């Protein structure tokens, strides 16, 4: 082999090696570019184009709303809210002594009167009942016998009204230390944090029966909204679930959000389920489900923000979704008939599915897979247009979860099984009663009183009208 042949062979080997190096670097660059795109997509996510809550949005995420030109405050035609006059506990009568105009004292009393009411709170003194148990020594055996507490007297320091108040304050997301301060400052009742925890257990036990009854009730309802968020149990992640109906909402804290867990929570497979597109709901018949259109809209907004062919597709999908919801609001307020809306929904579904099929054919990362998944839920997209009482969004369940999520953020979840049960039960009671416009405090007091006297507890189920 000549020197020229050797040099050519050497150069060819170098070229082959460099090509391998370039191919490896190209693969690394492609991998890094994909990772950069993924991180940029996460950076661009906010409450308008993802599942993130509005509280996580950085300043300036949402554009400023244009001015409507209306004045602040109540608008013409709004429902007036007038001050309510309370029953008076004392009364002072004032009569004029002279005419404001001329100073004359010859005045004739009028049948009308004006009442100016001043409301204040009295100084609170706790109602403390000393129950003195005397002892006696037996002259025969020498043993000492003490008097026992009568029925209806708790073995702890908390009476029913105090227990109800503690449950109400903690259920209103006031921290335990703040509740302790309120009891001391306002009611002159010094309570330790340990005693407060004991009181929560008594409240939880009093609420067990009505909450179990409410759970059975919501599982059997024809329409159920279901949603979940995260929770913490002794620092470990858990799942906070809600099953919400129009007038009853029940919360559950479970170990996870897997299909078997959700199936056990929901019980029998009755009714229509309004949810997101989570795979854990796959055991429920698709024809008896309604996928949340608010989630779909956020997904389509994300499509419109892409820098490729998916943006135009996102615009078309978003237009259909927003139009469907706008017209649905007209159906609800009575300005459009349900029959005409159903015809519109049938036509919209055909166009909607064609657009999704086009999205699948684009084979775009982050878009085609989402379109395919939405198509897999096609039987659950327009249930609301055909079944009375079904809403197109899962906002009812999301609104129910919001106060509980705020509690989690300030309390860091629960630290024990006892704390978990108390959180589930007191929030179930508070949210359900507010839906029914019933007094939360009065219910808690009644439940604690019934538990103390071994009587039937009040019910969370709405009265049949």
Provide key terms for this protein:
single chain; 465 residues; alpha/beta; five-stranded mixed β-sheet; two-stranded antiparallel sheet
Q: Would you identify the regions where 5 or more consecutive residues have pLDDT less than 50?
A: none
Largest sheet: 5 strands, mixed
What is the H-and-E element order? HEEHHHEEEHEEHHHHHHHH
Secondary structure: helix percent: 40-55%
- Side by side, the strands of the main sheet go 5-4-3-6-7
Content of β-strand: 5-15%
For the secondary structure, the number of strands is: 7
Structural write-up:
- The protein is an alpha/beta fold.
- Among the domains are: 167-284 and 400-459, no CATH class; 293-393, no CATH class.
- Helix content is 48%, strand content 8%.
- It contains 13 helices and 7 strands.
- It has a 5-stranded mixed β-sheet with strand order 5-4-3-6-7, sandwiched between helices. A two-stranded antiparallel sheet has the order 1-2.
